[in-house]
Amino acid sequence: MSAVKVSLLQTTLHWQDSKANLAHFSQLLAGLPVTDLVVLPEMFTTGFSMQSAEIAEQEPGPGLAWLTAQAKAINAAITGSLAVKTAAGGYVNRLYFVTPDGAVSYYDKKHLFRMAGEHQAYQAGQQRVIVRWRGLRFCLQVCYDLRFPVFSRNLNDYDVLIYVANWPAARRHAWSSLLVARAIENQAFVLAVNRIGQDGNDIHYSGDSVVIDYQGQLAASLSKGEAGVLSANLDGSALAQYRQAFPAHLDADRFRLD
């Protein structure tokens, strides 16, 4: 199994300005070295806004069209979340995963951050989603999902956990600690991208984007507040060998919580 190159984009976001954000990310992607997967922050077109009726796009909308075009242009998969108004009229925080051939998968954020009123502005998703790409299986998660380990529990059905976030700097210790825990307990790579800067609610974000290997070791990281691209190679063969030599998942407790 060949290695999969991933690229995480840590940057500030223009508050509730989709056109400005899409233009910004277009510039970043234009100069990006060859990669297999690009990971963008949570609500990358607007920032983490609870003004769902104002910022959400219809499905399919311009944000998805942009993801589809960019994936084809750089011949890589792209994942990132945005506010979407569903055909039924509800609003969701939707994490899209788009591949160069135009295939679209998505996960609607299940755990909504009630401390910011997200549970009042958006509807919760019900199921986790796993996507296959370049020989690896990716489990899609969004920000606050990180605090709920049962939801991300690996049943030997994925290889990589993706977290896209707008995680405030005030709780950066929790962010860093929980990411390592998720990697170790699930014997999976963790890709975690967070924004930087200040949003329209005067909340500060430190970034701290990381790639963590299946043993909880830091494979790559960006410094606090640093804008840039974080790249790493995920070796699926090494992961398979480690799981075979240390098959902790075979001794996992059998339970399920809803």
From TrEMBL:
Cited Pfam families: CN_hydrolase
EC number in record: 3.5.1.3
Top-rank EC class of the record's enzyme: hydrolase
GO terms, molecular function: 2-oxoglutaramate amidase activity; omega-amidase activity
SUPFAM superfamilies: Carbon-nitrogen hydrolase
Keywords: Hydrolase
Name of the protein described by the UniProt record: Omega-amidase YafV
Sequence similarity: Belongs to the carbon-nitrogen hydrolase superfamily. NIT1/NIT2 family.
Recorded catalytic activity of this chain's protein: a monoamide of a dicarboxylate + H2O = a dicarboxylate + NH4(+)
Top-rank lineage group of the source organism: Bacteria
InterPro entries: C-N_Hydrolase, C-N_Hydrolase_sf, Omega-amidase_YafV
Occurrences of domain CN hydrolase (ranges): 4-236
